[in-house]
Design goal:
The chain has about 160 residues and is mainly alpha-helical. It is built from 6 helices and 2 strands, in the order H-H-H-H-E-E-H-H. The protein has one domain: ProQ/FinO domain (Fertility Inhibition Protein O, Chain: A, Domain 1, Orthogonal Bundle), CATH 1.10.1710.
C-alpha cells in the first residue's frame, strides 16, 4: 500500500496543476472580458505592463467570482511571464491600473529584468526549435535540394563531356 502512495500523490499533484491551469485560463478570460483595456487575450499584441501589486486590487473581485488567491497568482504569473508582456515592459514607459489609466513608471531595474527574461525565452525557443526531430543537421551534410543540384550538375557535366 505504501508503494502506491507516491504514484497517487504524483497523480493528484498533476491533477491539481491541470485544474489550476484551467482555472487560471478561465480567470484570465474573465479579466479580459471585464477589463478590456487592461487584460488582453494571448493572441492580441496590445499587452501593457500592469500596475505593481495589482493582485491586491483584484483579490476581492476574483473571490466574488469564486476564485482563490492561488488561482489569481497563477493566472497573473502566467500572464506576466509571456514574451509579449516582457517586451511590453521594455517598450512602455508606464504601467496600467484596473481603470485603464497610466500610472507608475516602469523602472530601469524592471526593464533590465525584462531584457534578461526576453533573452532567456528566446534562447529556450531557439534551443527547442533546434532540437526538434528532423530539424537538426550535420554541418557537413547537404540538404536534399543541395544534393539534387549537385547530382544534376554531375549529369550535365558528363553529357557535356560526351
Amino acid at each position: 500500500m505504501t508503494e502506491q502512495a507516491p504514484a497517487e500523490s504524483a497523480t493528484s499533484t498533476a491533477d491539481e496543476q491541470t485544474r489550476l491551469r484551467e482555472q487560471a485560463r478561465s480567470l484570465l478570460a474573465r479579466l479580459a472580458e471585464t477589463y478590456p483595456t487592461v487584460f488582453f487575450a494571448p493572441s492580441e499584441r496590445r499587452i501593457q505592463p500592469l500596475k505593481r501589486r495589482i493582485h491586491k486590487d483584484l483579490l476581492g473581485i476574483v473571490k466574488d467570482w469564486g476564485y482563490d488567491l492561488k488561482v489569481l497568482k497563477y493566472a497573473l504569473g502566467s500572464y506576466t511571464r509571456q514574451l509579449r508582456y516582457q517586451q511590453a515592459l521594455l517598450n512602455n514607459e508606464k504601467r496600467i491600473d484596473l481603470r485603464g489609466e497610466l500610472g507608475e513608471v516602469v523602472s530601469e531595474a524592471h526593464k533590465q529584468l525584462a531584457r534578461e527574461k526576453v533573452q532567456t525565452i528566446n534562447a529556450k525557443r531557439q534551443q527547442r526549435s533546434g532540437s526538434r526531430p528532423g530539424k537538426t543537421r550535420h554541418p557537413d551534410k547537404k540538404s536534399v535540394s543541395e544534393q539534387k543540384i549537385a547530382d544534376l550538375q554531375q549529369k550535365l557535366s558528363r553529357k557535356a563531356a560526351l
